[in-house]
Design goal:
Structural class: alpha+beta
Catalytic activity: DNA(n) + a 2'-deoxyribonucleoside 5'-triphosphate = DNA(n+1) + diphosphate
Oligomer: single chain
Helix content: 25-40%
GO molecular function: damaged DNA binding; DNA-directed DNA polymerase activity; magnesium ion binding
Organism: Borborobacter arsenicus
Distance between the termini: 43 Å
Number of strands: 14
Largest sheet: 5 strands, mixed
Cofactor: Mg(2+)
Subcellular location: Cytoplasm
Shape: globular
CATH architecture of the largest domain: 2-Layer Sandwich
Order of helices and strands: HEEEHEEHHEHEEHHEHEHHHHHEHEEHEH
Number of helices: 16
């Protein structure tokens, strides 16, 4: 197959059908074999090997897969009037719903939407299935989040008997057939433009940005296309009269760095399509955390402490499951006016015990319970390491050893009979996961990695 494909390299009219994968030897608008209009043609189609794969409206797609009655209905993944939108299907997006939008605004835009609370365990399970399919294509898979990753298929032509572009199209079809959701593929010569390409023509997209066209393509794009240029920095650039990437291309590196520091160097390079970062598959986790958003703002320690305990237990369970420990405990609070407070404390040695995470978080929380009302509470650990040196015997706190043994016994019972089999006095009788009401659970990822976006 690859020998046949080699003859069409760099011929923009010699593409393939994304549905049946049949080669297209003319410039007809539809596949000559199956009639599909979904054709892939590009001058560098068979030369490029760096890809970005992104699942389409992942959480919503999984829910629609599991409940076919929702297929043609707007679906929002989130929950509670106080929460935010985790994701929305494309039908809801047409109505103006966007990720991270407050739930009340989302429901104003699309009142007929079906709202589903996130089921992270299910999404993680499906994400791992897709990740395994990626790793069958190449060992160079670099996850960005639960539903997207970079892949480098360079040198895999002999293994697959076809060029990377065809392998990726076949992969997309396999995910749709075997997993039941769709993905979009971006193919380019660098990570920056592969990610940009995957955002085109979603859902079920397959877009290519070649090296020869990169500078011209970028010149016509807004500066917000560049990684790191958010609303605040875009406003700074706009104040300087810079709104389009083409304007950056006409500026010298020294001038950009003088104005914007190290970010100036990024603007210079990415505006010209220069990105020499390679795909790495060996990233380590950066932090493990859990958080929740309340239905009503809470200020009382009597309300906040049970929640803190429940979240600490959840973080501990994740650490134990992953075989890691953390040395720095981080407390996160969001006030009723959406201001975020983070407090942290470094321990003498790493821990994975709920008891230590909770007690450290409690000391941090005590200083913040001054009458301020909070809409969100979270706890986590960073500075992760293996469990080899975690939780050594405490010669000062003689009760710590007993609490650790008790926690081990509780873990054993929960493993056998379920998470609800045993509760501590902090959370017993306090409702779902220690919360006084039923707040929307706006949780962070199970394990957050350094490449994940905030």
């Amino acid at each position: 197959m690859f020998a046949v494909m080699a003859a069409s390299v760099n011929d923009p009219s010699q593409g393939f059908c994304r549905d049946c994968l049949a080669l297209q030897r003319d410039s007809q608008p539809r596949c000559t074999q199956c009639g599909s209009p979904r054709l892939a043609r590009h001058a560098e189609l068979y030369r490029l090997h760096l890809a970005h794969i992104d699942c389409d409206a992942f959480y919503a797609a999984v829910e629609k897969r599991d409940n076919p009655e929702l297929r043609d209905k707007p679906v929002i993944i989130g929950g509670g009037k106080r929460g935010v939108v985790s994701t929305a299907c494309y039908i809801a997006r047409i109505k103006g719903v966007r990720s991270a939008m407050p739930m009340f605004k989302a429901l104003e835009a699309c009142p007929e939407a079906t709202v589903i609370k996130p089921d992270m365990e299910k999404y993680v399970r499906v994400g791992r299935e897709i990740r395994a399919m990626m790793q069958a294509l190449t060992p160079l898979v670099e996850p960005i989040s639960i539903d997207e990753a970079f892949l480098d298929l360079g040198g895999t032509e002999r293994l697959h008997g076809k060029p990377p572009a065809l392998v990726l199209a076949n992969f997309a079809a396999a995910v749709e057939r075997e997993i039941g959701i769709t993905v979009s593929v971006g193919l380019s010569y660098c990570k920056f433009l592969a990610k940009v390409a995957s955002d085109f023509r979603k859902p079920r997209g397959f877009s290519v940005i070649g090296e020869a066209e990169a500078v011209g393509f970028l010149a016509e794009q807004p500066v917000t296309l560049i990684w790191g240029v958010g609303k605040a920095f875009a406003a700074t650039l706009a104040n300087d009269g810079i709104r389009m990437i083409g304007q950056l291309q006409r500026m010298e590196r020294d001038e950009l760095m003088r104005r914007y520091g190290t970010m100036g160097n990024r603007l210079y390079r990415l505006s010209r399509g220069q990105d020499d970062r390679s795909v790495h598959s060996d990233h380590d986790a950066k932090s493990v955390s859990a958080e929740t958003t309340f239905d009503t703002d809470l200020a009382s320690p009597a309300d906040l402490v049970p929640v803190l305990r429940a979240l600490a237990e959840k973080v501990s369970a994740r650490l134990k499951k992953s075989g890691i420990a953390g040395r720095t405990v981080v407390l996160k609070l969001k006030t009723q006016d959406f201001k975020i407070r983070t407090r942290n404390r470094q321990l003498a040695d790493p821990t994975r015990l709920a008891d230590r995470i909770f007690l450290t978080g409690l000391q941090l929380l005590e200083k913040e319970t001054d009458g301020t009302k909070y809409r969100l509470l979270g706890i986590g650990v960073s500075d992760l390491s293996s469990v080899d040196k975690a939780d050594p015997p405490d010669l000062i706190d003689v009760q710590a050893r007993k609490r650790a043994l008790a926690e081990g016994a509780i873990d054993a019972l929960r493993d056998k009979f379920g998470r609800k089999a045993v509760e501590t006095g902090y959370t017993f009788g306090k409702g779902h996961r220690g919360r006084p009401a039923r707040p929307d659970e706006d949780e962070g990822p199970e394990v957050q990695h350094p490449w994940e976006r905030n």
